[in-house]
Amino acid sequence: MIKIIAEFFVKTENVDEAVKFAKELVAETVKEAGCIAYNLFADNTDNTHIVIVEEWESQEVLDIHSASPHFSRLVPAIATLCEKEPAVRTYTKLA
Q: Which of 4, 31, 60, 89 has its CB 3.0 to 4.6 Å from that of 54, i.e. a possible disulfide?
């Protein structure tokens, strides 16, 4: 299993639009084969910090997701609304 934590640091004036795009990304992604979980969170103390926590069955299905039309369209759209580059970390389950 692979877990991804993707953090977006959105400009204050763009929060609503970024969340709209992120919700669309979640809605499309949860339909994908191999997606165990795909959840959107907002920081409780900073609404400009949104996080997507993902779980995937394998690197293969994650690669397919990363090449999907909705990912290719929505992730760059969210990134343009941010004040700095998104932080994406990938983890492999050990136990």
A: 4
